[in-house]
Amino acid sequence: MIVTLIAVAPTPVTASPCAHCPTDLDGDGSTTAADLATMLAQWGACPNSCDADVDADGAVGPTDLAALLADWGECALFDFGTPYRDDESAQIGYEMLGPAGPLALPEITYDRILSDLDAIRDAAPALLTEPHTPAWARDRLIVKVLDGVPAAAYECLNEFYRVVDAQFLFTSGGGTWWVLTFAGDVNVEALGGIYASLDEIAFAEPDALIGGENHYEPVMLGGGVWRWTIDDGWHDCFDGCDCHRQYTFEVDARGNVVLIDLVEFGQPWCDFGR
Ligand SMILES: [Ca+2]
Ligand SMILES: [Ca+2]
């Protein structure tokens, strides 16, 4: 049997330095006359690859020009929106989104958390002084950038997600560890996944806060009902609290609260009568 190898023309690829702003051909953060000049210089068929073939159809043509003109000016960056006023509700909301969730916390979800917390604390005033302890910072990621791997895509994400501070941690295992701080709140679990998908990134996780005491976890049950599992912990909470009082509430869309369960557990020295 004879196997014939057929040479296949390489698929045209756009070599834009920044995938979120493909018409910024020279990567200076704006789409301007310089990028237009590059595009006109590449006008026509480009069977291999050329930067100005923005739509990757194998030619630089009117559709690419239209895209360039539509992008004219500074490249759009991620919009963090207006920060939510209630810190605790925002934190619970962002933690609720999860790694596969959206990057931004929908306002309707934030509003619901805010009103449910009010209703729950009306029903259980002991929780007034037991706020949710954040699992992680809403504006930070810890990343490990591999040495010797081109990091253009990483730089591009940092620009798009508006990194305002990159704090060096240490080097280890062929890479450099950084704490990135973003210009606003974001679902850092999902954003970590976006960073981790890059070749040059070996690790990207939220900046976890150690020593959580109280944990509020809402789940949507459907029909407008939310179930809240609330763990009120105390005594030696640095490595997991010794003592726990765990509530389960269901709250309907009108703010009616039902206590489903209340369990207390922990070490013999816990003062459950407190
Ligand atoms: Ca440019
Ligand atoms: Ca094209």
Average pLDDT confidence is: 90
Biggest sheet architecture = 4 strands, antiparallel
> Order of strands across the biggest sheet?
6-7-5-8
Bound molecules: calcium ion
The computed structural class is alpha+beta
Helix content: 10-25%
Beta strand %? 25-35%
Total domain count: 3
Describe the structure.
This protein has 274 residues and is α+β, with helices and mostly antiparallel strands. The strands form four sheets. A four-stranded antiparallel β-sheet has the order 6-7-5-8. It has a four-stranded antiparallel β-sheet with strand order 9-10-11-12. It has three domains: 1-76, Type 1 dockerin domain (Orthogonal Bundle); 87-134 and 211-266, no CATH class; 136-208, Alpha-Beta Plaits (2-Layer Sandwich), CATH 3.30.70.260. Helices cover 23% and strands 30% of the residues. The protein has helices at 33-41, 62-70, 87-97, 107-123, 152-160, 188-196, and strands at residues 30-31, 44-45, 59-60, 73-74, 136-146, 163-172, 175-182, 201-208, 214-222, 225-234, 243-251, 257-266. The chain is built from six helices and twelve strands. Helix 3 packs across helix 4 (107-123). The chain binds calcium ion (2 copies). One calcium ion (CA) binds next to strand 1 and helix 1.
